[in-house]
Amino acid sequence: MMPIRVMRMPRRLTLGILFSALICAVGGCNAPQSVNPFYLSQDVVFDSSLLGEWHGADPSEKGSVLVKAKTEDSYTVEITGYDEDREAEVRWTLEAHQFNYRQDAYIDVFPVAFRVSGKKENFQTEADGMYFVVPVHTVIRMHHDGQKLSLLWSEEDETLNIFKKEDEASKAKRLAREKRQHDILTMSTERLQQEVLGSPPRGTRISETTISLVRKK
Q1: Which of 9, 99, 111, 194 could tie 39 with a disulfide, CB 3.0–4.6 Å?
Q2: 88, 123 contact by CB (below 8 A)
Q3: Is 59 left (phi over 0), alpha (psi -120 to 50) or beta?
Q4: Global pTM?
Q5: Range of 152's domain?
């Protein structure tokens, strides 16, 4: 069976912390990811107040998130960032669906295209045109009031000590996490909602990452 790999940003391109985190979330990090969508059609909603251009809450962050209507129930999201010298522009294009599950609002994002434009590098590809790479759905919890947008995702907290040899207990936990991630990758949408969007297993330590955006004035 051909190995499945998720899309990642080329390492030599350094973006600001905010946009690195956003791209990481949709490109292979620890936010829940699956080849199947996290939403059912009856749960999808469309909110026109999400449309427009968003920036990091920290004015020093360079880059933007542009949300446009794609269909009556989906969005096109363009995440744009720059390298440290602003010599190369990096842009991800995503398809996004907003949906509600229980009391929370979520956004499911799916990569469509990737582009680098600059003096030294020019590269563009469709998401499904990258060799040995399978685009995946990523789910992120969200809160917004029309002017401020918060994106949140949770992951199992991992205690990492690079100076300590991995003992059997730590190895077992790591293997269990890896198996869990692999299982999530191929779960049906119904199981994803029940087992991923629901409460974490009892006793599991969870860490949460929050990205804050504000509307461009």
Answers
A1: 99
A2: no
A3: alpha
A4: 0.76
A5: 17-215
Residue 202 belongs to some domain of the structure: yes
Q: Which tokens hold the place of 154?
A: 């949770």
In this prediction, residue 29 has a pLDDT band, given cuts at 50, 70 and 90, of low
Structure tokens belonging to residue 197: 């969007």
Say how far apart CA 194 and CA 151 lie, in whole Å. 21
CATH of the domain at 123: 2.40.128
d(CA 198, CA 181): 15
Strand partners, 13: none
Largest CA distance in the chain: 54
Degrees, nearest 5: CA angle 119-123-127: 155
In a domain, 119, yes or no: yes
Q: Are 189 and 43 in contact (CB under 8 A)?
A: no
Is 114 exposed, middle or buried (CB count within 10 Å of its CB: 0-12, 13-18, 19+)?
buried
Q: State the total domains in the chain.
A: 1
The predicted-structure confidence for 130-182, as pLDDT tens digits, reads as follows 554 678 898 989 998 888 998 887 766 555 455 567 778 777 877 877 888 88
Which amino acid would we find at residue 63? G
- The answer to whether position 6 is within a domain reads no
Helix (H, G, I), strand (E, B) or coil at 50: helix
- Domain presence at residue 1: no
